[in-house]
TrEMBL record:
UniProt xrefs under PROSITE patterns: MFS (PS50850)
Superkingdom of origin organism: Bacteria
Flavoprotein found in the keyword field: no
Listed GO MF terms: transmembrane transporter activity
Lineage: Bacteria, Thermotogati, Deinococcota, Deinococci, Deinococcales
Protein name in the entry: Drug transport protein, putative
Sequence ranges assigned to domain Major facilitator superfamily (MFS) profile in this UniProt record: 28-619
Sorted UniProt keywords: Cell membrane, Membrane, Transmembrane, Transmembrane helix, Transport
Entry-linked InterPro entries: EmrB-like, MFS, MFS_dom, MFS_trans_sf
NCBIfam families: efflux_EmrB
Originating species: Deinococcus gobiensis (strain DSM 21396 / JCM 16679 / CGMCC 1.7299 / I-0)
Membrane topology (UniProt): Multi-pass membrane protein
Subcellular location as annotated: Cell membrane
Length: 634
């Protein structure tokens, strides 16, 4: 049997699980849930408004940075806030986070306003900077919220409420795109950010009025060096992964290799510094705790699988099933429903059974089956059958957020609950970023192969006027960008115009030869290999001398016109068939590529399942432990 020891001296600790009444606890939970909902909502509500924002602020070149800035700052700050909440109490850290988040929201809404002038270089750059401020605040909400549940509820009761916290993320993924679209179309894109202000102030009022300080009793110095190093480790790594996945730089480019090298050097320095600090940002001794270690590994892998499931389902819905971007957000509601049901049901079951390991194993087993089923999708998979797969994914992955948090919190001392909770969030976010980069590379590779294969026959059978356009799509930028940018209607119009112009030019050549009345010119015309075969066969039976009289010329040209009309109609029909083939080829290519992603996802989720099998099977206590919990040694 082994036991973790507190990382530093401790002061007096109040057992809030016993001293607070149930109503006060519920009010605290309501305020924290609202704050967490704002943080989760902000990750989805902005995406719908981004096209409008980029157009009005003239900042298309910075489009992706609006999301990247938020990701970088929030991910880097999560473990820092977790440690600070252990040192100074949950309440002040959470309130500081909400205030920073609301300040960032207000500034984001003001981006591009005249009174800001050219601050930071203009409207879009202002938005990028202010989104980074938002991310700094949101990190406190994401890391501290789950720790608060551990402070005010006994271990067995935590499970009931942490299921609610997990369900918030699923709910926000549905409400975000719908609310973002409504606010952007009805009011202004600025209200996508302003809407946070009244809700955030309500959450702040609840927390200020009802929440005690929630101090852990830990007394130690702040690890400033560790905080700085974890930022230097996280930001370059996430930046390199994001740029690589987006195709801004090649994976072997000097820019990305330099960022990876800087991140690796910071990680080595971080581990060295943490091993010597009396109260490190991330106590390395936690990784001697089997439960903590295996939970972090499994949660990292689940983060990769979950984010991939959401992002690439949307890609399938848009490019294969023909949904709009907003419609695709609505179409993923079955995934959210499954996620919410899974999260809440798992929490209630954990509270009733007093155990969590086999619930985690069961959930990940279900998720593995769901990914196997997702890997069988094709271009012909109906939406109801896709929705059934989504529900299964949600049921499998929904329980993991709350159960992993419960497992980590139950395995450490009360002085380490904040850092253990934030570490889980950090590992899941890092897993999600790395997973998106991995799956993005799989998508690019698969699409390149799929487009070349599926377009080959279409290009071969297309009219010459269409072949050059299709060849460009077939060979364009790995296939992905070419397929997404291909405008079938524009291609059809261009091809039809070329076909009609070609036939008109040929007819003009024939008419000139016939109207000349020269049998020699007419004889040469009948041997012209550029004329349609059917026309040359039809003219072969016409005597050369027929063009010497006006009546003969009219008769020949009438026959030519009839033949041309028939040939032109056939070529135009061939163009329509080719474009139908193009549409089918694009859908098949995307469907097969997304299915390949889920085939890789099976491996990722299966690894998470294997890691979960090594988590010790501990029983949840009915009251809050007053010392570090006892761990299974075998």
């Amino acid at each position: 049997m082994t036991q973790t020891s507190p990382p530093a001296t401790t002061g007096q600790h109040i057992n809030y699980a016993e001293t607070l009444d149930l109503r006060t606890k519920q009010l605290i939970v309501a305020g924290v849930l609202l704050g967490l909902f704002l943080s989760a909502l902000d990750q989805t509500i902005v995406s719908t408004a981004l096209p409008r924002i980029a157009r009005e602020l003239d900042g298309l070149s910075l489009y992706s940075w609006v999301t990247t800035a938020y990701l970088l700052t929030s991910s880097a700050m999560v473990p820092i806030y977790g440690k600070l909440s252990d040192l100074y109490g949950r309440k002040p850290i959470l309130m500081i986070g909400i205030v920073i988040f609301l300040l960032g929201s207000a500034l984001c809404g003001l981006s591009g306003e005249p009174f800001l002038g050219n601050l930071f270089g203009g409207g879009m750059m202002q938005l990028v900077v202010f989104r980074g401020v938002q991310g700094i605040g949101a990190a406190a909400l994401a890391s501290v919220a789950f720790a608060i549940v551990a402070d005010i509820f006994a271990p067995r009761d935590r499970a009931k409420y942490q299921g609610l916290f997990g369900a918030v993320f699923g709910l926000s993924s549905v409400i975000g795109p719908l609310l973002g679209g409504f606010l952007t179309d009805s009011l202004s894109w600025r209200w996508v950010f302003y809407v946070n202000l009244p809700l955030g102030l309500i959450a702040l009022a609840f927390i200020f009025a009802k929440m005690p300080r929630l101090a852990s009793g830990l007394k130690a110095k702040v690890d400033y060096l560790g905080a700085a190093l974890i930022i230097v480790f996280t930001v370059p790594l996430l930046l390199a992964l994001t740029w690589g996945a987006d195709g801004n730089y090649a994976w072997g480019s000097p820019q990305l290799l330099s960022l990876f090298a800087l991140s690796a050097a910071a990680l080595v320095a971080f581990l060295f510094a943490e091993s010597r600090h009396p109260s490190p940002i991330v106590p390395l001794g936690l990784f001697r705790n089997r439960t903590f270690t295996w939970v972090m590994i499994s949660r990292f892998l689940v983060g990769a699988g979950f984010l991939g499931a959401i992002l690439f389902l949307t890609l399938f819905l848009v490019n294969v099933r023909g949904f709009s971007a907003t419609g695709a957000g609505t179409a993923t509601i079955p995934l959210t429903i499954g996620f919410i049901i899974g999260a809440q049901s798992a929490g209630l079951l954990a509270a009733r059974l007093g155990r969590y390991k086999w619930l985690i194993v069961g959930a990940l087993s279900l998720a593995t089956v769901a990914f196997i089923w997702l890997s069988t999708i094709t271009a012909d998979t109906s939406y109801p059958m896709l929705a059934a797969r989504m529900v299964l994914v949600g049921l499998g992955l929904g329980p993991t957020v709350s159960l992993f948090t419960l497992a980590a919190q139950s395995a450490v001392s009360r002085q380490e609950i904040g850092v253990a909770t934030s570490s889980g969030t950090f590992f899941q976010q890092m897993g999600g970023t790395i997973g998106v980069a991995l799956f993005g590379a799989v998508l690019t590779s698969a699409l390149g192969t799929q487009f070349k294969t599926n377009f080959a026959e279409v290009v071969r059978n297309a009219p010459p006027q269409l072949q050059s356009q299709l060849a460009t799509v077939q060979n364009g930028s790995g296939g992905a960008q070419g397929g997404q940018a291909f405008d079938a209607e524009a291609a059809k119009q261009k091809a039809e115009a070329g076909i009609k112009a070609g036939f008109a030019q040929q007819y003009q050549t024939i008419e000139t030869a016939v109207r000349s009345g020269d049998p020699a010119q007419f004889a040469a015309l009948k041997q012209n290999a550029q004329l349609p075969e059917a026309l040359r066969s039809g003219l072969a039976g016409v005597p050369d001398q027929a063009v010497q009289s006006p009546a003969g010329q009219t008769q020949v040209l009438t026959r030519v016109r009839q033949s041309f009309d028939t040939a032109q109609t056939e070529v135009l029909a061939q163009t329509d068939r080719s474009l139908d083939g193009v549409s089918r080829a694009i859908k098949v290519s995307f469907a097969n590529s997304v299915a390949r992603i889920y085939a890789v996802g099976i491996f990722v989720i299966a690894l998470a399942l294997i890691a979960a099998l090594f988590i010790p099977d501990r029983r949840l206590g009915s009251r809050d432990p007053q010392a570090a919990p006892v761990m299974d040694a075998h």
